[in-house]
Amino acid sequence: MYTVVVAVFLSILAVFLRSLYGRKVQYRALSGLPGPPSNYLWGNLFEFNKHIEDTFENFVGLNKKYGPIVVLWPHPWKPLVVLAHAKFIERILSTNTHLGKTSLYECMQPFLGRSLVTSEVDAWKRIRKQANTAFQPKIFDSFIPVFEYHENRLINILKTKSQSGNIDLPTYVDLYVLDAVCELMTNVKTNFQETSDNGYLKARSDFLTIFMNRAYSWVKRSKFLFFLTKEHEVQKKCVVTLKKFSQYLIDTRKEARKQSKVVDNDNGLNKTVLDLFMDADISETNLRDHVDTFIVAGHDTPGSTIAFSLYELANHPEIQAKVVEESISILGKDPNAVVTIQDLQNMNYLDCVIKEILRYYTTVPAHERLLDEDITIDGITLPKGTEVSISIYATHHNEKYFPNPHVFDPDRFSPENVHKIQPYTYLPFTKGPRDCIGKTMAMLMMKSVITKVIRNFQLLPVSPPHTPKPTSEFVLKSANGLPVKMRSRIL
Ligand code: HEM
């Protein structure tokens, strides 16, 4: 017994001393770099352990206040380097090194398990290879009927709702994207738009709010201490709701495959992500984690970007007029014209508008990586083992990279101007081998639905004027909604 107690004590002591030594090494390497003053015992815990809305403001303000490389101590022994520095970002993202994620992503695991977003590098490589087939250009044509079906439902709903007052865009857009993404990822038709059932979305939003609250608090990041909080109980309930939904999608798809409703042609080229993983013979838990990952990653991001795009079009009539003009030049004046992938790819001006939305609002404000080796640039070294947060938002709003960053200007991306954008300063989908797997699908979906909406409605600003309040649930949203007026449009 005595030997066991001594062994346990020595193990704890060893872990403690190792952490202390690790902190000393990192502290020495990073101490010369700017950042908010931190306490030796609790780091910057109290500055970042506030309400989610303050967290976003505090986070995006860091690089503005301290420069493009900022050292933060959310955990007293584990610093986080917040980067908005093109050369460092390029060095991290452009190679096959530094592909691992930081400890932050462990807080996602109760929901996403070890799937594409959260997995370690070896598993990630295998999963990414399996999933790639569902995102190849050869299958893009099969997206069109899915877009059409769900967009037509959205238009019908907006026609009714717009007659009785302002429309809060995320309320309707979020349900449209959820229906579309469920079908694109799993081949199962859901009807969130008609039922307005938001139990699933509420559970997800609550989970992500807790996730963001854990991001900068080592107390809540600690599994043991988090277990003792009320939020742990809430999170457990959210996960039950979320997993019930992914299980429903899996069961429905399994049944359809059993009934031989699956068209298995062209060596699986038309298979969804769910079909590909079902064929890979993995556990049911794993399957649910993959479904959850693709639905959450593929839903919130285009949903938010579409809502912000329509909102800015309502508030910039001259830009809206150019988008309408371009769509008429490509599709003619029939409001029911069905687009092709080629049509969508020809919408160059709309492309500039969406790219500017992805800069101006920055749908995914930041993401994190773990450094696999030392990186030295201009005499500054970030040591191996450092956790870095690539602040896409701060990079997109750096005056040096984007002049007048707080002005909404799609012409930054016009053929005459786009070459002025420095490499690794525009990163909405991040870059490199671990970039967004769904980026092309997202651009096609966003162009298709925005075109459909503006061909059916004239979008107008509300009165009195509204100012969005950005907040981050990992994905940027507006805490006070995005209201617009809609009037039927005759092309
Ligand atoms: C406007 C739309 C979108 C934006 C701005 C966006 C942005 C991003 C970003 C920044 C990442 C890196 C996240 C990180 O490393 O933590 C990412 C990863 C990812 N995205 Fe997207 N995304 C969008 C749409 C989509 C869609 C439509 C899908 C799928 C249907 C998707 C699936 C994924 C997945 C699975 C990953 C993880 C990739 C990996 O680790 O290999 N995304 N996305």
UniProtKB/TrEMBL annotation:
Lineage of producing organism:
Eukaryota, Metazoa, Ecdysozoa, Arthropoda, Hexapoda
Instruction: Name the Gene Ontology molecular function terms of this record.
Output: heme binding; iron ion binding; monooxygenase activity; oxidoreductase activity, acting on paired donors, with incorporation or reduction of molecular oxygen
Pfam families on file: p450
Q: Fetch the SUPFAM superfamilies from UniProt.
A: Cytochrome P450 (SSF48264)
User: Where does this protein hold heme?
Assistant: C436
Q: Which InterPro entries match?
A: Cyt_P450, Cyt_P450_E_grp-I, Cyt_P450_sf, Cytochrome_P450_Monoox
**Keywords, sorted A to Z:** Heme, Iron, Metal-binding, Monooxygenase, Oxidoreductase
What protein am I looking at?
A: Cytochrome P450
Organism from which the protein derives = Oryctes borbonicus
Q: Which cofactor does it need?
A: heme
By sequence similarity, the record places it as follows: Belongs to the cytochrome P450 family.
Keyword set includes Iron? yes
Q: Which domain of life is it from?
A: Eukaryota
